[in-house]
Amino acid sequence: MNEGKIGLIGCGAMGSALAKGIVKRVGIDPADVYLFDLNRDRVDELALELNAVGAQNLEELVSQCRQIFICVKPQDIESLLYSIKSMVRQDQIFSSIAAGITINFIESCLPAYSKVVRLMPNTPCLLGEGTIAISAGDNVTAAERDQIEALLKSMGITIRIPEYLMDAATGLSGTGPAYVFLFIETMIDAGVAVGFRRDVASEMVIQNIIGSARMLQANNNQHPAELRNSVTSPAGTTTAAMHVLEESGFRSCLLKSVIAATKQAEKLRRG
């Protein structure tokens, strides 16, 4: 086994994004990246694109790789873990992106010494602009966690959190892009309502979102309210708009949405 070899089990959207990032952005030798999926065509296609190794079976991947990313659906993870249990070595690290599947559950399906990391990515990871919440099991050393984060940087930023906040990370960050997309969709519709062609309104709104986010990044010592207040003139257009949003309960609605998504994540985990 080569210490630098990396395995990815599951070549769906997120697994493929991680594989592409590791090879194309991190610069890992594709010959050291092993891929496996029950869908053989998916494996062959991705392996051909990256010049990576399409493992013939799980035994080949697990025997060759020290760092293994589990990118399968939550309902498939238990059978997967039991199928590889006898192959697991003490030096291997297993990182799972399966929503709602706890570190404790994964450890219970593997040998007692197993090193487990839990991840919660969101869809912008597909473009290398995502947010990934990360929690590590007790058997994972600080150096090993750093290694995982170095690989994940190809997908965006990593934020370390205690595992009890993973459901909250799902409600805030995992679901977060949907809130933004709905806001953008509504803004575009509003643009059409006041007279713009849809393509023009779309271009304006998307650039507004990008520019505003970059302003926040460039002024990371400022509260968002400060930037908002800087464009809110007395008796001006922004003041009128903010009044309607406040009167309509915009803040309250968004707060309730994040809390509801968090509670649903908790429910799914218990289920």
Protein architecture, described:
This protein has 271 residues and is α/β, with parallel strands linked by helices. It has two domains: 161 residues, Rossmann fold; 97 residues, ProC C-terminal domain-like fold (Orthogonal Bundle), CATH 1.10.3730. The chain is built from twelve helices and eight strands. It has an eight-stranded mixed sheet, sandwiched between helices. It is elongated.
User: What separation lies between the terminal Cα atoms?
Assistant: 38 Å
The counted number of beta strands is 8
What is the CATH topology of the largest domain? Rossmann fold
CATH architectural arrangement of the largest domain = 3-Layer(aba) Sandwich
Instruction: State the major sheet.
Output: 8 strands, mixed
- Taking all residues together, what is the mean pLDDT? 93
Share of helix among residues?
Answer: 40-55%
How many individual helices?
12
What is the 3D form?
elongated
What sequence of helices (H) and strands (E) makes up the elements?
EHEHEHEHEHEEHEHHHHHH
Strand order of the largest sheet: 3-2-1-4-5-6-7-8
Low-confidence stretches: none
